[in-house]
Amino acid sequence: MKAKCNYFVFIFILLVSFTTKAAFILIPMESETQQNHLKAYGITFWALENNYKASWLLNYRGGSFLLPDAAEIRKECQIRGVTFEVLSDASTNSILEEISAPSQNMETVVLEKAPKIAVYTPKGKQPWDDAVTLVLTYAEIPYTAIYDEEVLSDQLIMYDWLHLHHEDFTGQYGKFFGNYRNTPWYIQQKADSEALAKKLGFKKVSEEKLAVAKKIRDFVIGGGFMFAMCSATDSFDIALSADGVDICEPMFDGDDSDANYQARIDYANTFAFKDYKLERSPVVYEFSNIDTTEEHGKGSFTMDKDYFSLMEYSAKWDPIPTMLCQNHTQLVKGFMGQTTAFAPDKIKSNVLVMGECKINGEARYIHGTKGKGMFTFYGGHDPEDYQHRVGDAPTVLDLHPNSPGYRLILNNVLFPAARKKKLKT
Q1: Organism's domain of life (predicted)?
Q2: DSSP letter at 328?
């Protein structure tokens, strides 16, 4: 009898321990509770790298993350200053049931594996020269810097996600000629680019950059994820559309551009843009009329009014754009760059506009598919530096740990980790 009694006592204690045991960690992502939104992505990425299971709770408390309760995860959160909450099994099940309810615009997305990240960037660039490398470093997400030699030797196959630094794929050296042609850094950049093109077997930088753009295009078509900001967005599409056409003036490539080259632009080759007109003048700091930067200096459109709105999607039916738009606010501060935003009439109909400035209808944040892969274009240079200029001091992300604009970048970084499933739309 005594043995039987002891048995029931043991079972009771075991049941109590199971019901009170912390089973999961919730990393909340709403504005009120999370002290460092950016490093929260790094924690989730770190957990995936260390073979922990993770879930992205779309539209739940700002797009929170659910991780297993482990001492080393708690420790990492504490070290990195990321807010977390400890949940019991019962609490976790209650949250998941709430999310799965048909009446709730929420969804649970399982994150399976940390994607391998590559950043296409020139050698020797400082991390602060590019918002993506800046935030990856700050969030402690590992990446590999690659450039033309790696791309042309087919090393993209080693990666899941590729970011394009603020590159000029047209061979016009960023259209800096007008203001900076006599500066040492411009002269050196031009010389370095010409030397690299020659080393790789090309007569012109424009030809070499086109070859690189085609390799990146094939990476996406084969199933890769590509993210680009600022001038890497429109210059990439322009280069593809000008395949076989010389659009460079003599100061860029040593010979005249093709006569009437505008008529030979093939919009069928592009990812996102159509019907644009190229800027012929070498002294105008612009590639085409895809970009709307010029509109920002007109009328009453000022920095304090420059915001763009994120679109709202059905988490259960459209999980991809929902993931890419996760944030603790629907209204994001605008910011400028060589390519600040995209004219809506220059965007192809099959491309999704996920962020739009309501004042003038320009698109800031767009997404699409190409073959088996996907791409996202994000206008502007630095989400926390409104009008970044050459030589400006770097952005200190410790001052902006909850930046909504930088969160959009990290949504794209984490997105390839999501479990692939057949889409409903």
Answers
A1: Bacteria
A2: S
